[in-house]
Here is the input.
Amino acid sequence: MSRELKVQERLQAIEQQLKASGLWQSFAPDSQAFASTEPFCLDTMSPLQWLQWVFLPRMQALLDAGAPLPVTLAIAPYYEEALEGDIPQRAQLLHCLNALDQLFESPN
Here is the structure.
């Protein structure tokens, strides 16, 4: 299986985990929230909003365009810090994020 297909599967697993946990949002943040210049849109979005509305669509757009994927990726450490312990199914979501990060740890 190609790296791109593995990335696609892991992105879908993150989306499914967000939905299963009741963390998937039906409506996007205000358009101004997307204009942030801060990493993870820290000043305008919650970590879960950024994941759903920025990260997942951007990664999917790269895959759809056949564009190069990032050489490295490490978003799980941010979410280990950013997500409070009472987030539903936190451990499962972190597992999905770590699984995605692992695809970018060594060259394929």
